[in-house]
Amino acid sequence: MPNNQKKTPFRSPQADSRRTTGRRGGPAERVPAPAGRPTPEDAAPAVERPRRPPTDLGKRERHMVAPAKPERLQKLLAQSGIGSRREMETLIGEGRVTVNGETATLGQSASPGDRVKVNGRLVNLKFSNRLPRVILYHKPEGEIVSRDDPDRRPSVFTSLPRLSGARWVAVGRLDFNTSGLLLFTTSGELANRLMHPRYQLVREYAVRVLGDLGVEAQKRLLDGVELEDGLAQFSSFQDAGGDGANHWYRVSLFEGRNREVRRMFEAVGVTVSRLMRVRYGPFVLPPNLKRGQVQELDDAVVAKLMAEFGLEAPERTPVKRRPR
Asked: Which band of pLDDT confidence, cut at 50, 70 and 90, is reported for residue 324?
């Protein structure tokens, strides 16, 4: 998917006064946005979902399905959220996948009703007759993007809608002390493409630093600074104002290395005191999406997203409901 080079504004969302106990409270700090920037037309529409739904949202009647056909095993496992297609090929090659009790082979297909296990655990297969789910999540500071944390810190996955027979796959990560936009999907294959470097998806951040940056330091950040894991540079850098010692900037780059934005500012002698991701590729953090809440993309947007990334969307027919 080509990146839209149009600059995108962002208004910091207001705080969620109904946040659960234990989550950091207080109103969301307003991030100064550069003046005169056009309203984005590429922000994906979304349908808001409750943060903690009382029922299982994995079974949705709004989906439209078609009869399932046999599909390649590695593709099935990837779109079922187990991992990328390449990772599934590795698991199959290592003999860690079985179909109906028999060790699977590369290129093998599976059909509805087959019992597929990975490392001895039964997998609920997601065939291509159903679109994957994609949600936007406004991550607050103080949450980790992991299901397994030895320190038992709060995880983003406890704030997501519950699923039946599937799991959420994070599209990239944000540091524990970084807030902002995170994408999740039930398709490992779609997540892998959204993260793959060849698609060059832009990541845009609002950054608050202690003090001001000189012109020379800004130029270095655009030209590139040498980090321990290689050269890093911003594709755009804009002053967003601020009062006193706290100054805001808007920056963007086309990769997502560990703590990359913070390390880049540290390389020019400046400390980041607040970091918020406001855009990932075509998706902009909705101004009305409060911290700790999710919004789900509708089927039309998901189907378009899959087509733009070269993934086949199912031909859908309405689900026939049983008469009462």
From this structure: very low
Nearest CA to 245 out of 268, 221, 213, 219 is that of: 213
- Out of 23-32, 94-103, 310-319, the most confident range is 94-103
Q: Which residues pair with 250 in a beta bridge?
A: 206, 238
208 and 240 in a single domain? The answer is: yes
Residue 4 counted as domain residue: no
Residue 300 CB neighbour total at 10 angstroms? 10
State how many domains the chain has: 3
* CATH number for the domain that contains residue 222: 3.30.2350.10
In a domain, 152, yes or no: yes
Same domain as 209, residue 85: no
Choosing from 42, 56, 151, 175, the catalytic residue is 175
Q: Which residue has the tokens 């010692």?
A: 245
175 carries an active-site annotation: yes
pTM above 0.90, yes or no: no
| Structural domain containing residue 212 | 203-280
> pLDDT tens-digit profile of 179-196?
999 999 988 889 989 998
* Confidence at 45, pLDDT banded by 50, 70, 90: very low
Tokens 């029922």 belong to residue? 55
Q: CA angle, 161 as apex, 120 and 96 as ends, to 5°?
A: 15
